[in-house]
Amino acid sequence: MIQMLTCIKQDKNFVGRDMVINTFHDARSLDEFDINIVNLNSEAVWRNVRDGKGAINVENDLISLSSMIQNSSNTQIIIIFPQNINFSYYYYNGKYNKACELKNMLESIKKNILPSLYFPLSSLSLFYENTKTKIGSKEIEASFHFYNYESTLLTSVKSCKATVIEWHGIILTTLNIKDYNDVIDFLSAVNLLEKKEAIPEWSKEIKMFDDNVQSSIIEANRLVIQEAEGNIGKAREVLDKNNEYKSILYTQGDELVKVVFEIIEQMFGCDLSNFEDKYDEDFLFQAGGFTFIGEIKGVTPNVKNDNISQIDRHCQNYVEDHEEEDGRIKGLLIINHQRNKPLQEREAVHERQVSLAERYEVLIIETPVLLKLFEKYRFGELSREKWLETVKGATGLLRMEDMG
User: Fold this and answer.
1) What's phi and psi for 167, nearest 5 deg?
2) What pairing do the DSSP bridges indicate for beta strands 362-366 and 396-397?
3) Distance between CA 334 and CA 113 in Å, rounded?
4) pTM
5) Distances from the Cα of 6 to the Cα of 94, 192, 265, 291, angstroms
6) Which tens digit of pLDDT belongs to each residue from 202-245?
């Protein structure tokens, strides 16, 4: 029996005799199978919701697999490397906004990503070069190859580049193995499977015993699986978006600003896509008859006087050019302070900073409070009207109880 482990259980190309398909997350004990194949050749693997190329979304699943690999003793493990597909990262506004070809980030893959699955991969020599390797009657393409180690099992046509090697007891391949037939041909080529007589097409047309009943069962359950996988895919996208919102509890700089912008746009009903600062502020927009001016900060200490004074300066500079709006200008400090600490370990904003904000008529909004209120807004428990009414009238520190 063979267990094929994939990122998302949706590729029916690998369905076949003696093949069980599971996700990385739902992997069964490796020792239950003669052969286990970890398939990294999918764009779904090479994604990171955060803004960076040093990690992937399924890293925790790979770490769990790593433990299973170390504890296995009665199975042959194969890892299929990816082709030169795109690494997609920085998930924002419902899509991944950045991409990089894998060939341009090989060092990061070897040092930061592959070791989470199998630590010896960190010392592997991996190179980009398009080749073809003969497997059975076919030539299978590969985007990468290994150094020609003594443990090389298969090499490319003419160029003799190592595309299949044995590495610390595991078989590694860069071949573009796309379906069940490729798997069977590959396993035969590396002497892991005896070649069985192929079932002729005419034999498949002969219906006997309970063939029709079992075929109906398979088809019915296939539809159920497809629907379930669609629901799982949608749920994962929602979870990814929720994690993006929650990032305002620990991020700083542009990463923090971009997510807070999205929250502001939804809660205030404004558009910040064309915002350009004129007074060195982080945001300036009109909503509910007021002009809101402010800063978005992610800092390691608690709120300081300078943070509040900076907002007051922005407001004063704006009033100088817009005297007619005096009395309808609101300074906001949206701040993720003590961002490196768990929420329960963060100190409250000091009273002297709260008093200073009240004196300057500035409102401090901590990101944990903003996130909770945004949750209420999304669930319909807080209206935009109530939100605007409270923010326009409040000074000092915004507290959950201010919303009633």
Assistant:
1) -135, 110
2) parallel
3) 34
4) 0.53
5) 24, 20, 38, 51
6) 887 888 888 888 889 988 998 888 888 888 888 888 999 999 99
Per DSSP, which regions of 347-390 are E strands?
362-366
> Which of 136-140, 334-338, 355-359 shows the lowest mean pLDDT across its residues?
136-140
Residue 288 has pLDDT above 90, yes or no: yes
The span from the CA of 170 to the CA of 151, in Å, is 11
Ramachandran sector of residue 41 (left: φ over 0; alpha: ψ -120 to 50; beta: rest): beta
Q: Supply the pLDDT for residue 198.
A: 66
| Res 195: pLDDT | 54
The predicted-structure confidence for 239-270, as pLDDT tens digits, reads as follows: 999 999 999 999 999 999 999 999 999 999 99
Give the percent of the chain with pLDDT over 70.
98
The whole-angstrom separation of Cα 126 and Cα 284 is 49
Distance CA 192, CA 181 (A): 14
Q: Give me the DSSP letters along 319-356.
A: HHH-GGGTTSEEEEEEEETTTTS-GGGPPPPPHHHHHH
Q: Which domains does the chain have, with CATH numbers?
A: 2-198 (3.40.50), 250-403 (3.40.91.30)
The Cα 9–Cα 212 span in angstroms is: 26
Burial of 248 (0-12, 13-18, 19+ CB in 10 A): buried
The C-alpha R_g of the chain, in whole angstroms, comes to: 28
DSSP letter, residue 148:
-
pLDDT greater than 80 at residue 82? yes
Q: Are 124 and 135 in contact (CB under 8 A)?
A: no
Beta bridge partners of 135: 138
Cα distance between residue 193 and residue 38, in whole Å: 17
How far from the centroid of its chain's Cα atoms is residue 368's Cα? 22
